[in-house]
Specification:
Number of strands: 10
Mean pLDDT: 92
CATH topology of the largest domain: Rossmann fold
Shape: elongated
CATH class of the largest domain: Alpha Beta
Bound molecules: guanosine-5'-diphosphate
Number of domains: 2
Structural class: alpha/beta
Radius of gyration: 23 Å
């Protein structure tokens, strides 16, 4: 039985955590608000969840996360997308935050979920990772959500710095999820968020289930750690659930296709290590077909761990975890972020020049017109 800690920081992190708790409580979309009082978690592993935020309203919005797991880190007006303020708040409240983790016992692994671009999550997460790595010896993985590219210069520069700091502060791996490429889920922005959050929740819960299951062909926490330590420290996850009988090869390919991945990449080009976990009724799982398809991937990628979980009566489901050697989309994002930083710098200069204007105006302060 694995002990797992999942932390959601800031609004985006809180919402994804809430989606994980909803799925874990067996909740589809119709699952009622009271479910958490009546149902027991479906987690096989022992999972503790913790939501941190400076904005109390974001915490209040959560429906499936216990009140005792929603921690308000007080700061007068939130942090307003300013990472310097966010970092200062974290340092001031560090012991309160760490006590919450301490109280929840010891773990085999932790996930920290956040957006890269906002204020609270993007500034708390790197510092939290640093503190956790200093105090505990279990792996800490981050799941980081990238912004829509049109969300503006501040969000872009926050993204560039926060991801860099998460890497530098010792995270054992960063799983990327990209709003930009997942937004074609459609509907309103809220529906898109909900859809993306559900995709992430589904993948994380499948992963936890897989790491703690009796398998016909085994992958375990050690394999996951090996996969995550490969490449450039960045990873993505794909998932496919068949709703009818389909060839297992197709199900595996589908889990690796761009529309199944949380972050856009050509896995055959950019991946460095992979783990593929297949679940379903034995009659759908031809070992020969599975091996052929996996060999195709390992031929391009390098090492691929595979796991098979037999669940009678279920159509095939496939989860893929891939670390990336290169990530073209990330390179693009960093060059856009550099432009954004320069734009902000130029704006600041203009404002400083504007203060010459202030001087000009202030020359007549205290004077009266003479006629
Ligand atoms: P914080 O509360 O200050 O950490 O800031 P947010 O978490 O709101 O960060 C803003 C970023 O998160 C923007 O890029 C939003 O697009 C994204 N975001 C906010 N809420 C959600 C959500 O529920 N799901 C997803 N996928 N992204 C979100």
């Amino acid at each position: 039985l694995l002990n797992i800690l999942i932390i959601g920081n800031g609004q985006c992190g809180n919402r994804i955590l809430d989606s994980i708790n909803r799925h874990a409580l067996g909740g589809g979309k119709s699952c009622g608000k009271l479910a958490r009082f009546y149902s027991t978690q479906r987690f096989k592993s022992h999972v503790e969840t913790l939501a941190l935020n400076t904005a109390i309203n974001d915490l209040k919005e959560m429906k499936f996360t216990k009140a005792k797991d929603r921690i308000h880190i007080e700061h007068l007006h939130g942090v307003g997308a300013n990472r310097n303020v966010g970092k200062q708040v974290f340092e001031e409240k560090k012991e309160i935050i760490m006590r919450q983790i301490e109280d929840r016992g010891n773990f085999d692994m932790a996930f920290v979920i956040t957006s890269a671009s906002g204020g609270t999550g993007s500034s708390f997460t790197p510092l939290l990772v640093k503190e956790m790595k200093k105090r505990y010896n279990y792996p800490v993985y981050c799941l980081v959500v990238l912004p829509f590219r049109e969300e503006g210069t501040l969000y872009l520069q926050n993204t560039a710095f926060s991801i860099q700091e998460i890497r530098q502060n010792g995270a054992d791996g960063i799983i990327l999820a990209d709003n930009q490429y997942l937004k074609n889920i459609g509907g309103s922005i809220q529906e898109a968020y909900d859809g993306i959050n559900d995709m992430i929740a589904e993948r994380i819960l499948f992963l936890l289930d897989a790491l703690d299951s009796e398998m016909m062909m085994v992958t375990d926490l050690g394999d996951f750690q090996t996969v995550m330590s490969g490449g450039a420290g960045l990873a993505t996850m794909g998932f496919f659930r068949a709703d009818k009988e389909i060839p297992i090869k197709t199900a595996i390919q589908n889990s690796l296709s761009p529309s199944s991945l949380l972050f856009s990449t050509d896995v055959y080009e950019e991946a460095s290590r992979a783990m593929i976990v297949i679940k379903g009724d034995r009659k759908y799982l031809s070992i020969d077909d599975i091996s052929t398809e996996i060999e195709k991937l390992s031929g391009a990628v390098g090492h691929v761990f595979k796991g098979i979980i037999v669940r009678s009566g279920e159509y095939p489901q496939v989860l893929s975890v891939l670390t990336l050697e290169t990530a073209r989309e990330m390179e693009n994002l960093y060059s856009v972020a550099v432009q954004a930083i320069n734009q902000e710098k130029a704006k600041k200069q203009r404002v400083e020049e504007g203060s010459k204007m202030e001087k000009a105006f202030s020359q007549i302060e205290g004077m009266e017109p003479e006629y």
